[in-house]
Amino acid sequence: MRNAFASEITALAKEDPRVVLVSGDIGNRLFDDFKAAAPGRFVNAGAAEANMIGLAAGMAMTGFRPVVYTINSFLTTRCYEQIRIDLCYHCLPVVLVGVGAGLSYASLGATHHSLEDVAALRVLPNMAVVCPGDPMEVRMSLRASLQQEGPVFLRLGKKGEPLIHSQPPPFTIGKAIVVKPGTHVCLLSNGHILSLTMKSAEILERKGVSAQVVSFHTVKPLDQGFLREAFSAFSLMVTVEDHSVQGGLGGSVAEWLADNPSPARLCRIGTPDEFFRGAVDNESARERVGLSPEAMAAKVLSFLKAI
Fold it and tell me: What angle do CA 69, 276, 153 make, to 5 degrees?
């Protein structure tokens, strides 16, 4: 995902002289092509993330289109006050790009885990929250974000996420994408965990369960039209995310469901409401919290049996 971001931001900088990339002391070699294509428009703000947000706000107020990039946990919770006041209060067109979301940096410990960030940012007025599902969605969501008039948070994985889309799908912030049709259960996948959701659907197919897979990339604004149709068509709706089950996509859909009652059941799959302790590789971490394809499929099957 980060390579797709680096490539696309370089292309966008060539098209629009207002685009400026502000980095929190990472990705210096990753952005060599950007620096060559847009001299003077790469700013390394150093390990001073709160100041970095204020810098981007000032740039936006003077007509630039800043894109701020750093490790997700340092970009979001560390800078929360600056994001709230400097960006959201003034509704400034700044794109925040957090890399290594969820348990992507599981091996580096709790400082690098970000399992509450969507919950924190989606409640801020004017903020859009977008979590692309594969490298192609990264490119399209970045382009769409730069067309917005207010702040946007783009939540990325790290690297190695496989392409899911064989060709660019229609992409609009706030509009879900059906990746795979199905009839028994609908899986709403949020962000870089989309490939694991697809594998979970394959397991369910082998068990005789037809699973529709949706890239529900935007947590805010919610695609309410899609939710109304899906909750009418399926008996079980499932949210899947590399984030706490509280406050992320699952929490957002649960809030929507409270205002729009439906006979369909909602199953939320995500990380538990507790700190992930230890330092293990990404795959092991997701197995521990129930985000492996096998564990997700087992949870869906248990819900289906209870209906």
Answer: 25
CA atoms within 13 A of residue 268's CA, in its CB half-sphere: 19
Q: Which residues of 45-66 are buried (b: 16+ CB within 10 A; e: fewer)?
A: beeebbebbbbbbebbeeebbb
Q: What span, in angstroms and rounded, lies between the C-alpha atoms of 156 and 224?
A: 23
- In eight-state DSSP terms, residue 84 is I
Residue 145, H or E segment:
helix 135-145
As beta bridge partners, residue 152 has 95, 128
Q: What is the DSSP string of 110-122?
A: GGG-BSSHHHHHH
CA distances from 249 to 215, 241, 277, 290, 299 (A): 12, 7, 23, 17, 17
pLDDT digits (tens, 9 = 90+) for 60-73: 999 999 999 999 99
- Which pLDDT belongs to residue 297? 98
Q: Give all strands (DSSP E) within 195-235, no chain letters.
A: 211-215, 218-220
pLDDT in tens, 154-206: 999 988 899 999 999 999 999 999 999 999 999 999 999 999 999 999 999 99
Alpha-carbon distance of 186 to 200, in angstroms, equals 12
**Count of C-beta atoms within a 10 Å radius of residue 208:** 8
Structure tokens at 72: 């997700």
pLDDT at 221: 98
SS3 call for 218:
strand
What gap in Å lies between CA 44 and CA 228, rounded to an integer? 44
Q: How many residues are recorded in the chain?
A: 307
What pLDDT band is residue 114 in, cutting at 50, 70 and 90?
very high
List of residues 6+ apart from 75 with CB closer than 8 A: 24, 49, 68, 69, 96, 97, 98
DSSP designation for 193: G
> pLDDT tens digits, residue range 31-48?
999 999 999 999 999 999
